[in-house]
Design a protein that fits this description.
The structure is a homodimer. Chain A has 7 helices and 10 strands. By secondary structure, chain A is α+β, with helices and mostly antiparallel strands. Chain A is globular and about 65 Å long. Chains A and B meet through helix 1, strand 1, helix 2, strand 5 and strand 6 of A and helix 1, strand 1, helix 2, strand 5 and strand 6 of B. The structure holds a DNA duplex. Chains A, B: This is NUDIX domain-containing protein.
Chain lengths: 231, 231
DNA sequence: TCAAAAGTGTTCCGCCTACACCCATGA
DNA sequence: TCATGGGTGTAGGCGGAACACTTTTGA
């Protein structure tokens, strides 16, 4: 069988990417969602999405969609899962690859999301969404929890400089669980992956809290010694 | 914009599923691979694969490919990852969803794999494979390790009745690490998810080893109490 | 001076790890 | 009787969890 005839009669499909975009602001985990501009379901709430083009990899398509909807590049993104039911999209048969992204909202604010009718919403504020997008969010949250547990991805959601209180409240949001202040500090500092800065953040207390910075070099050193990040 | 025009001019793509099929035999973890029957790369070693059809979900396509190549149904399968580089398949632009499956080789042997030129090979015996299939296997192994750590999926690779020695050597294969006999027994038995049978397996020792069976009820009970399977 | 968040140590308990000998039995 | 794999218990150490008071300083 020639290559030509082998591939010739195979059905082709629409392939989409949908992005679950997480942010963290005011000690709350948030998601970026938009109102859909096309039929079917025009005006309904939706994740950010787009179709795979011929000249881009699937990962590149996801990065493109993210850039088009937030203006941001070089963002942490990871494949979530493939959603492939025949009737999941009411407009046509579309296979969707879902990605989740972690955004520093402060940096994002410089780029207008208005043109996309995009909004940052807290988890409990999320309205009904089109298709299987709510399931995608549920799956993304689970994956975020699993990944955050053993990989230093939480820092992707924080400003470059952050306080330990901010870091702790981020993990409390991700895990939906209170964390002991002393034990948290002990654990994160014992891994020796943070750089303590001289600066203090005085916006949330009179005393001021030391700022820290995630040190990728130190993290690589941790891994090289066979130890694992865990929080 | 009408629904028709919105979807009309979007490029369509070939979508494949590839299956990384794990088995366990003679205390060795094995993979089922075959020699490709079509060009390009005819005769080269390859994972089991096939193309997504119009009338099936992506998960169903994976199950179909598995059934066509092994004769087995109702097999443990899980999505691995999407492989979407533009040039990953030298014959055409093909997006592949990889799945990994866990097989009880004994049950499989009743179905001839010969017609597919399929072979069970140990990990270190795997030859060069087409496209990005070797990467898929590496990713599948990593995912298998991660999943086996906190989910009782190892039992999918063993006969219904098994000895603790068999179970331990399975995990030694998965983790590529020796496990202490006493500690392993203590841990697995303390979770109370195994049913101890009266029967003994005398094939590997004169004394005979007790057979056990994974008890799904007990496992659900474990989860209900908020505890996690861990091995 | 006081309110509000930052920062700091210790104890206890459970779990993981390391480790060596007897048992049952077919050949 | 002996070789082979099956089966069993304990002691020590480490890490996780629980827990309350002092410090700083702007208002």
């Amino acid at each position: 069988m020639s290559a030509q005839s082998f591939y010739a009669n195979v059905p082709r499909h629409l392939v989409a990417v949908d992005c679950i975009i997480f942010g963290f602001e005011n000690s709350k985990l948030k998601l970026l969602i938009m109102q859909r501009k096309v039929d079917p379901m025009q005006g309904e709430w939706s994740l950010m999405g787009g179709f795979l083009q011929d000249n881009e990899s699937v990962d590149e398509a996801a990065a493109r969609v993210l850039k088009q909807t937030t203006g941001l590049e070089d963002i942490y993104m990871d494949q979530l899962s493939c959603y492939g039911d025949v009737t999941r999209d009411s407009g046509a048969r579309v296979i969707s690859m879902a990605y989740y992204a972690l955004i520093r909202i402060r940096e994002h604010e410089q780029h207008p999301t208005q043109q996309f009718s995009a909004h940052w919403l807290e988890l409990h504020q999320i309205p009904d969404l089109i298709f299987d997008h709510r399931q995608m969010i549920a799956d993304a949250l689970k994956k975020l929890r699993d990944n955050a547990h053993f990989h230093p991805i939480g820092f992707e959601l924080l400003p470059e400089k952050f306080t330990l209180s901010q870091l702790r409240s981020l993990y409390e949001e991700i895990y939906q669980k209170e964390l002991d202040k002393r034990n948290f500090r002990k654990k994160i500092l014992s891994m020796n992956v943070l750089e303590k800065l001289e600066e203090k953040d005085k916006t949330t207390s009179k005393k001021g809290a030391h700022l820290y910075r995630f040190d990728k070099q130190k993290y690589e050193e941790l891994k090289r010694r066979g130890l694992v990040f865990e929080i």
